[in-house]
Amino acid sequence: ALFMRVGGGIYTKAADVGADLVGKVEKDIPEDDPRNAAVIADLVGDNVGDCAGMAADIFESYEVTIVSAMILGLFLTEATQSLIWIMFPLLVRAAGVFASIISTYTVGGSKSETDAMKAIHRGYNLAAVMSIASFALFGFLYCKDWRFFAATSVGVVLAVAINQITDYYTGANRGPVAEIRKSTATGPATTILSGLGIGLESSVGAILIIAASIAASALIWRNGITVTGVEDNFSLLCIFYGVALCGIGQLTLTGNNISMDAFGPVSDNANGIGEMAGLEPKARQTLADLDAVGNTTKAITKGIAIASAVLAAVALFASFKYEYYVPVIDMIQWKVFVAFLIGGAIPFLFSSLLINAVGRAAYYVVNEVRWQFANIKGIWEGTTDPDYGKVVTIVTSAAQKELLTPALLAIVSPIVIGFVFGLEALAGFLAGVILVGQLMAVFQSNAGGAWDNAKKTIEDEPRDLAKNTGKGSERHKASVVGDTIGDPLKDTSGPALNPLIKVINLVSVIAATMMLTKEGVARENWGLAVGVGVVGLLIIVGALYFSKRQTVMGRDEAVSAAASGPAPAAAGAAAAKEQPKKKH
């Protein structure tokens, strides 16, 4: 999931940013104009990043929540001699599969239905109702405890709430996007500022919903369980098990989530192919409307994936504590607090690596597209096809080379912290990663989604350069700048923080065995700690140096943005095909 997210995100956004900067801003041609050498790489990238990357990400959360719930359930099974703690998560997920399949058939709607988002919400809500009914069935009849039903239902409510809050902040017809659209009238700077503000605000709302869900699970299971002959009521263990059930409930509708995510790149590609094929305006507008809905569904799915990553990480965090008998995590202890601070810094460094990777690759894409416009005869007139394969090679090379450093950071950092500072500090490190990673992920994903839809609403306006409306206007160019900044945030670094959080937690759970003696006591071997710390730091520093020195196969020379000249603004995209190439 980490590789698919990182590699796919770099691939898709390097192509997208390069295509937009040269095509829309410099040449004033449509997004998917076949004369743009980056257009094929852009369309392919939607599938690589959004379909494959998101599916791997959500599937990972799906499995992690099951595994963490079953690990916690194992301790409760040993205490109660009952298998319900292990079986209930499997039963819930089985029911969710059937609910997703059945609800999918209600999404198609009638021929007269024009609101795609309404149809998608209808299918999702039906699946949610069916799932909650199954929770009640299993909770009351099989487990004979209402708390199983309540905790998983909280997860479904969480998913629906995340849907709504993400739709609010990124929906094309919502207030935040309208605010960004308004700010484009005064240029790129205000466009960027309004998008940043909206993204930051949305992260607060999302974390409050997640916090409320965890609190609700804790209240439901606060009394623990009663076991004959045992004084301990396992209340803390039951609370964490309830949090895991919340994650189980939230991801019960994974089939719907993946379908909603795939809707985005499918509609985006259909819109692009329609533009390249020159479909009639009515058909193009239908595809453009579906594309805007697809942006929102992708943002919603990202929000669900981020929330699920937090719940999965909290459940893994708890299983880590009980698996290795970590004492109470005392934040006053200097080792724990230092590790907490380092953990909070990891998402920033990780995001920096990915955004820089997209920027480096986009640099070569822009140079390549400019060079082809300037040097390949017939591209501007539409009589010769560009060399699409060259851009595909550039972004593929970048995606493959840039995978290494972020992956090593995720794998090596928890091992170094654990050996140098101990298991209790490693728990503090995980807490920092979870907290900051969630805030950063929601901020980046929602800011990017809002910028993208603000751009699309301007593109839907009638083109009138005198009134500064529609494609090619100054407002449109400002929105494209915002969108290109948001692209790596919403489709590369933001979503990739989800698997980062889970990978670090999983590595910690697995590697913790190396930090204990055979008797289960923490190792007190300073030589080993120093050795692992030094080697780990060398690996991370070497990977960072490798990343900074990274080069991509492509043209390094800058080509003038006006090398082939855009078509006259008033003539528009249609006249541009007949515009002879200007020679300077």
First-last Cα distance: 48 Å
Number of H- or I-type helical stretches: 17
User: C-alpha Rg, in Å?
Assistant: 25 Å
Low-confidence stretches: 560-584
| Order of SSEs | HHHHHHHHHHHHHHHHH
Average of per-residue pLDDT values: 84
Secondary-structure class: mainly alpha
- Strand percentage lies at under 5%
Key attributes of the depicted protein:
584 residues; 17 helices; 0% strand; mainly alpha; globular; disordered C terminus
What does this structure look like?
- The chain is an all-alpha fold and 584 residues long.
- The protein is built from 17 helices and no strands.
- Helix 2 packs parallel to helix 15 (474-511), helix 7 (188-220) packs across helix 10 (281-324) and helix 7 (188-220) packs across helix 14 (423-459).
- The chain starts with a helix and ends in an 8-residue tail after the last helix.
- The model is unreliable at 560-584 (pLDDT under 50).
Topology:
Blueprint lengths: L1 H25 L12 H42 L3 H21 L11 H28 L2 H25 L4 H9 L4 H33 L14 H16 L3 H24 L3 H44 L9 H42 L12 H14 L2 H18 L1 H37 L14 H38 L14 H23 L23 H5 L8
Question: Could you give a short description of this structure?
Answer:
This protein is 76% helix and 0% strand.
